[in-house]
Give the backbone structure.
Amino acid sequence: MNRHKSFLLALDQGTTSTRAILFDAQARPVRSHGIPLRQIYPANGWVEHDAREIWQAALACARAVLKGLQAGDVAAIGITNQRETSLIWDKKTGAPLHNAIVWQDRRGAPRCAALKKRGLETGITRKTGLLLDPYFSATKLEWLLKNVKGLKGRSVGASRSDQYKDVAFGTIDSWLIWNLTRGKVHATDVTNASRTMLWNLKTRAWDASLLKLFGVPRAILPDVRESRGDFGTSDPMLLGAAIPILGVAGDQQAASFGQACFAAGDVKSTYGTGCFVLVNTGEKVPRSRNRLLATALAGSSGERVRSKRLAARPVRKAQYAIEGSIFIAGAVVQWLRDELGILAHAPDSEAMARRAKAAPGLYFVPAFTGLGAPYWNPGARGAILGLTRDIGRAEIVRAALDAVCYQTRDLLEAMRRDMAAAGLSRLRALKVDGGMVANDWFCQRLADLTGLTVDRPVVTETTALGAAYLAGLGAGLFQSEHDITARWALDRRFHPAMKKRERDLLYRGWLRAVTQVQ
């Protein structure tokens, strides 16, 4: 690696925005640029994104952070993305055939219910680690193949798969890779593949029986590569130089990597649009008995990297995680701001929560797109319960932040049981990241309502940081995960201050509130 190649470019394509962050050789953020992403709601419970808008924003953000610099000084690109969001496009024209269907979208709920009725969920979970829910990509892709003009009615039989030779499916990482390489690479990584409900965690390959079940032709699927891998090179006309793409991971696995959760038992919780808690379970594929998910972590199969572009050394073995997902976290703050006008700016939620009066019995259940783990009820809808005449805006804001804390405890309670069954030590601390954790009141409340110490790192944008680390390892800027662990730095630690009796009493009220929206 030439010494002058001292930058890493991370593309972080999220649910509500697209960003690029330029890191230096020490993984310190140097520049960043973001563009909000428009949300499209075609019907109740449906959520879409314009894939063209995503690509144009990613390109604009990358160019913005590289302005005035030599693109040739960038050692590698790392990509992290909103997971499960799915699209199909025309390989010849590069044009999307439909809007991308977002992970929050619930149009696949009837199909999932029908498959559950047939008793198929257990088999699907055994193969994929996932539960039958429209959250994942399989029913999204099935819907696209059945409803997009020009695709409906095509045979998906193996003998006629050539009918789909010009159609490509991908999650957002694949879409960005395709565009960056001008269509030369159609690939995804193991973390994103593991969220499609079409990829087998044990065989680490697309599962033929699941493809048949959902009517998906193998020809349209991307190649699956390790997260720290070779995903081609950006076209030099796009950014000013041919830059290798050496790291790709779904947002939550990227955040886990950025939080240096490399050992079994390490746990992190990310608070963005949703909330996602992951605990590293090591090299064995886990099985949750508490309606959580098993998923692949960013890593590799342990084979020696063969690409000349990557450092010629053995890389770590495959690792897995148990994950709990909350659909609505930061999105509830966004809703209070944009739809109700209670907040002028999202950071105002901290000051409002601090001045809120005590409101016993007030609970906000933000089930706008159903409930995620451990309930998995796509039909649930949001509610504010326990309203009295003296409840005002501040109290509602605090109840919304409390809801994120209670939902986190839901996940942690289930995770504790799964960790015990897997022989992992009891949780003592929770590493947190994402936009919401800039709020000190929220972090303290999270510690109080979960009973865990909450550790906030200096760099809270760990999703982009994880993508940069993956790319940097591939480019040789970092030698090992020990280098990354040494760079993790604590900003502040929040210790629980609430008594257990009070914490448990409040949580029981939350559980009663949840039963009323299901």
About this structure: DSSP finds 16 helices and 22 strands in the chain. The first helix runs from residue 51 to 66. The domain at 7-258 is CATH 3.30.420.40 (Nucleotidyltransferase; domain 5). The longest strand covers residues 17-24.
